[in-house]
Specification:
5 helices, 9-stranded mixed sheet, about 20% helix, Dihydrofolate Reductase, subunit A, about 220 residues, alpha/beta
Amino acid sequence: MADVPDVPGLPSSRFDRAGERRVIVIEFVTLDGVVQSPGARDEDAGCGFAHGGWIWPYSDPELSAVIRQEMAMPFDLLLGRRTYDIWARHWPQRADVWPGVNSATKYVVSRTGTVHAWQPTVRIAGDVAERIAAMKREPGPDLHVYGSSELVQTLLAHDLIDALWLKIHPITLGAGKRLFAAGAIPAAFAVTQSTVTPKGVVVVRYERAGDVATRP
């Protein structure tokens, strides 16, 4: 991916603190902001969603290389319960594709006490925002968030997201769970990397960059 030059005068991020874990949201998203069920038709059919598997026509070697790069990074996972349940049925059987996902610690936000045998897994309950803020101050790899649209809303509302790594697909779906719903606070982001794949997917990394600036 192409590096984007630094933007002069960009406000510094209060999250840019050496040694702290970052929360990085990694999503496939449509032009109208839908993140629901990108990989398979039956992945998440909640609320009658009928377009599951919408990313597949846009797959190509360049996009696959980006995904493999992200998968190879050191990370722990921070997931909502629905995404965790889907992944727990899939990834233990695919260790050859993504060995790191099975050894990573899976932090799952869940109101119930039951978890799968997919270990290591740690349940987060109670004041989720407070717990995640504390986790960011603990030693360890960055926390990668995939899917988990409801959890993402909590992270946005409490300004806990340090970066958004998006694959924006040239398609609109009109309905489905959105990346940005009600509750996102005003926040500025800086583009640190971007590229467009041959099939038109905009691969872009946004880093949290302080408060929203307005015209004097």
